Amino acid sequence: MQVPLQITFRNMTTSEALESYIRERAEKLDHICDTIVSCRVVVEAPPKHQRKGGLFHASIDISLPHETIVINREPDLHKSYHDAHVVVRDVFDTAQRKLRDFVSRQKGEVKAHEEMPQGTISELYPYEDYGRILTGAGDDIYFHRNSLINADFGDLVLGAEVRFVEEQGNDGPQASSVRVVKP
């Protein structure tokens, strides 16, 4: 990091153990991405209640060249953020994932999704709940009415363009997901 790590504790006394843990986790972030300009961590204790304690809150602001990553861990009814270490762990886990995604994008390692094959409906058998797709390569693919994603089987017409996911069935190739291409 070009700027030293900033750690702020709000509504609580500084905890050496928690501060040490934050520095350790921040160092790991620096190993994931060596272009981090600055990192600011805020840990906030819940307001003091007489009957029951509240939940901790933590956030991280990571400044990178041309981008800023902000992660907040708000208290949530489904989370156990009664312990500051737990909320800090979760916020750093999320920061690590976001930084890895950032580094992957910078290196051009973004996943390329394979295009779904395309074809036209060549046969329909409404009383038997299936049809057939003819692909551009001349393959004949079976599909069942339950494979349709964005249309009703009764609304299909011969010649309609579809995209599909092909898999090997017991009796040959079949489409497990069929999406009608909207013009």
Explain what you see.
There is one protein chain. The protein is an alpha+beta fold and 183 residues long. The protein folds into 2 domains: 6-107, Ribosome hibernation promotion factor-like (Double Stranded RNA Binding Domain, 2-Layer Sandwich), CATH 3.30.160.100; 118-180, Nucleic acid-binding proteins (OB fold (Dihydrolipoamide Acetyltransferase, E2P)). 22% of the residues lie in helices and 35% in strands. It has helices at 16-32, 84-107; strands spanning 6-10, 38-44, 57-64, 67-73, 118-125, 130-135, 140-144, 161-169, 172-180. The strands form 2 sheets. It has a 5-stranded mixed beta barrel. It has a 4-stranded mixed β-sheet with strand order 1-2-3-4, with helices on one face. The longest helix is centred in the middle third of the chain and has 24 residues, at 84-107. The radius of gyration is 27 Å and the shape is elongated. The two termini are 51 Å apart. The mean pLDDT is 87.
Q: Which properties best describe this structure?
A:
single chain, alpha+beta, Double Stranded RNA Binding Domain, OB fold (Dihydrolipoamide Acetyltransferase, E2P), 5-stranded mixed β-barrel, 4-stranded mixed sheet, 2 helices, 22% helix, RHF/RaiA, HPF/RaiA family ribosome-associated protein
* CATH C-level class of the largest domain: Alpha Beta
From the coordinates shown, what is the CATH architecture of the largest domain? 2-Layer Sandwich
Looking at the structure, the CATH topology of the largest domain is: Double Stranded RNA Binding Domain
- Largest sheet at a glance? 5 strands, mixed, barrel
Given the structure, what is the number of helices? 2
Element pattern in H and E = EHEEEHEEEEE
| Helical residues, percent | 10-25%
* Strand-pairing-aware structural class: alpha+beta
Give the spatial strand order of the biggest sheet. 5-6-7-9-8
Number of strands: 9
End-to-end C-alpha gap: 51 Å
Low-confidence stretches: none
Q: What general form does the structure show? A: elongated
CATH-level-4 superfamily name of the largest domain = Ribosome hibernation promotion factor-like
Mean pLDDT: 87
Strand percentage: 25-35%
